[in-house]
Amino acid sequence: MRKDAVQNRERLLQAARQLFADRGLDVPLDEIARAAGVSIGTLYNRFPTRDALVEAAFADRAATVTELAEHALAMDNPWEGFVAFLTGVCELQAADLGYNDLAARTAAVDGDRGYGLMREILERAQRGGELRADVTLTDMAFVVWGVAATVRATHKVAPGAWRRHLALALDGLHATAAHPLPIPPMSTAQTRAALRDC
Amino acid sequence: MRKDAVQNRERLLQAARQLFADRGLDVPLDEIARAAGVSIGTLYNRFPTRDALVEAAFADRAATVTELAEHALAMDNPWEGFVAFLTGVCELQAADLGYNDLAARTAAVDGDRGYGLMREILERAQRGGELRADVTLTDMAFVVWGVAATVRATHKVAPGAWRRHLALALDGLHATAAHPLPIPPMSTAQTRAALRDC
DNA sequence: CCTCAAGTTGAGAGGCCCCTCAAGTTAGCT
DNA sequence: AGCTAACTTGAGGGGCCTCTCAACTTGAGG
Fold it and tell me: A185's torsion region: left (phi>0), alpha (psi -120 to 50) or beta?
């Protein structure tokens, strides 16, 4: 790849990250091109689809989440690790409307990457006895969807409100709170499908 | 108003209710007109803005919610009343993607109407000791936003999944689950503003 | 310095949606 | 039956966004 192409790619990614962060994943692409000081044609040269751009813009996050997960597993108290992990992910969401949108389409079940770690975090916390035994990995989607919705609604007027939402959700996941759940968890296939359509 | 105008209004409302229910609040208006067998111009004659149409289409819901609230207050067990009310509202959301969208912009704090009843339901449940004492009316927005997000994501592939989400949320609202919350509740002004921008 | 593959450009076609308004139609009164 | 205010119509202008492609420019190897 020619070096000017590399540079343009980098500028596009930076502009995209900025605009995604400020306004969510559906910023017009021509605005990103303009912000990058590059023509719309170049944007399409470097990133043939919006998804390609989004993926490239947030490529680093997978590693970040993995770090969070490892850090969580390194904590002594399994429940606190669980809480720390979810809090960490939600902090990423709250800090970036683009990632907030993306997380809602990606949550939890992305078995491919470091998310296998999430299963460990969850199961360890269950073995520790503080996380209720009847929740599944797929239930984590509810947390992410919920917090994502709260972040979207409140980021302007009450940033940080999601922390209260998350705290309430976590209390609902604590073993001491457990009442029998009305229906079985979603299958991973269902969850995957649900994530797909936003 | 001329009787053909009345008839067209009615047809439009029916078409709108159907399409809103199936596809959410942002169906193209011309599609609604087409489904009603009427021109787009007529739609604009009857309903000058999208909001006017939405409001008319869901005018009955306020009464339904009030009924739910009264029914909840008539229950012996305050907590069960609280649960029944939230479940009822969420059932409305799950049954109609349009109302699901609308609820997310309307939740809880709409002091004007029968929602004053919601405050009663909540406070009664707190006095009863089963609803944690540190939650506020504004916290109900988290439940509605969360369930709305889950309904949107899962209605096709796992309808009913929201019941599990709601059950977990409710467990988090139960007094036995209460751990200190990290931040104070949103003010009603904040909540109102948050509801405004989606 | 020359060359050409690699890269850039931006106007424009196309899609979707909103909203208007001048021309045509009709209900319902007299 | 005639009249008029009320109503309907739908083509069309406008905005916004996506995506393409023929013409142009440039980096870098020889």
Answer: beta
- Those residues of chain A whose CB sits closer than 8 Å to some CB in chain B are 104, 135, 139, 141-142, 145-146, 148-150, 152-154, 156-158, 160-161, 163-165, 167-174, 176-179, 181-183, 185-186, 190-191, 193-195, 197-198
Contact A181, B167 (CB under 8 A): yes
d(CA B190, CA B109): 10
Q: Take residue A173 and report the two structure tokens written for it.
A: 């996941």
* Cβ pairs A/B, distance under 8 A: 154
Q: Tokens in use for A85? A: 């992990």
Give the pLDDT confidence of A28-55 residue by residue, as tens digits.
999 999 999 999 999 999 999 999 999 9
Q: Do B183 and A197 touch (CB under 8 A)?
A: no
B3-57 to CATH, choices 3.65.10.10, 3.40.50.10810, 1.10.3720.10, 1.10.10.60: 1.10.10.60
Q: Which CATH class is domain B60-196?
A: mainly alpha
Q: How far apart are CA B89 and CA B64, in angstroms?
A: 9
| Shared fold status for A3-57 and A60-196 | no
Kindly report, residue by residue over B135-186, the tens digit of the pLDDT. Answer: 999 999 999 999 999 999 999 999 999 999 999 999 999 999 999 999 999 9
Chain A residue with the nearest C-alpha to that of B178? A171
Please identify which residue in the block is written with the tokens 């850090």: A71
Location of structure tokens 């209004």: B9
φ/ψ of residue A166, rounded to 5? -60, -40
**Which are the contacts of B11, defined by CB distance < 8 A and separation ≥ 6?**
B36, B37, B38
Distance (Å, rounded) from C-alpha B87 to C-alpha B81? 10
> Virtual CA dihedral for B60, B63, B69, B74, nearest 10 degrees?
-130
> With contact defined as beta carbons under 8 Å apart, do B130 and B174 qualify?
yes
User: Is A158's CB within 8 Å of B198's CB?
Assistant: no
Structural domain spans, chain A = 3-57, 60-196
